[in-house]
């Protein structure tokens, strides 16, 4: 493609050089520059790509997209100054890969909790309905039935458009993706054409990045502000910020709820650890999910499916056949007749939701033992809140390691314990080694009890000092049960 064609949707300030040059590739990593490529200098959180322009040129880049002034331009190089390099990267990547999102019915799911479950189950729903579909999520990416490893909740623009283009080539009609607040803020989704957007909820998370809840909310809202008139915007009206998301959107607006009147209204009839009887818009069905939070997810999935043109009865039938996402309220039974539940809950609200769901089923007939930690180098303000919620809703709590990253595990646990008073500390154990914490919980459990192992869910590693060591909560539990 010619450079000028790649720039047609970008807000260009000025071009110095040959706008008609043929481009061999687009790069945002200077180390991957090749002869004839365009290097886009992105201003990242920790690294500024403008520092690597010379390196990209040395490796063959012949055009540079930049925001800052270039003091010493090199001969034979085309320099394109733009208002926003990140926005340019998304729009250029979209054109480079042939506008793949425009050839798919792409739905984005955003919110604090429930993104992975909602996006993944929408993908599975449409596969059950007989369509080829793609998925971009925290757990895994799929192009129809082929899985690809996920490295980020929302990939960078080049990887994102490359994956979407492969979905188009594979004959997919639909694609579903998690849209993280980081991706919205960093404009990784610039240039994408969405057929719909789903809002799950907003609770405290990522304040290490966004600094305030107001800023976090504003970023999430931007996704809906930018949806086109042809799209739908489906929001959780029971969340106090649900309607905020719809304030400035041009998309057609719809609501879902468990508590009040909405376009898609659900309720719980009966619940047990293997599933629930629910109703959606007056129609009853059995589902293989537990907890009110999952009913919200299922209602959003049903709503989005109908808004994408599917018939209600077919959607309900497919919904009843869906199974929980890996590491989300995943239930394991012990030979001693107690239950272990592995769940990804890593925010205060998610932890509360899972524990309340367990209480709903137990109805006071067993104890709850919770094993939980917090990630290192992430929002520290939620640590004492996580501990308090765990203690408030459990009979016994074990604070342990999650992914400590570059922090000391004991220091993270101490931050959590600082949120507890002396009475709460009496029913709390502090065990740094996660495997030992799980073993201790199993030793304490009696018939009819439930152990919640929270925070890591589907993850099969622990991130310690930059190294990912193999660790899977489910494997540990199965090993204990086998012994």
Lay out the secondary structure.
Layout: H1 3-6, E1 12-16, E2 25-27, E3 37-40, H2 53-58, E4 63-66, E5 78-82, H3 85-96, E6 105-110, H4 115-128, E7 133-136, E8 140-143, E9 146-149, H5 157-169, E10 174-178, H6 181-185, E11 196-199, H7 207-210, H8 213-225, E12 232-236, E13 252-257, E14 264-272, E15 275-280, E16 283-287, H9 292-307, H10 312-321, E17 330-333, E18 339-343, H11 348-362, E19 368-372, H12 382-392, E20 396-399, H13 409-417, H14 422-425, E21 428-430, H15 434-444, E22 450-454, E23 461-464, E24 467-470, H16 473-482
Parallel strand pairs: 2-3, 3-4, 4-5, 6-10, 6-11, 7-10, 11-12, 12-13, 13-14, 18-22, 19-20, 19-22, 20-21
Antiparallel strand pairs: 1-5, 7-8, 8-9, 14-15, 15-16, 17-18, 23-24
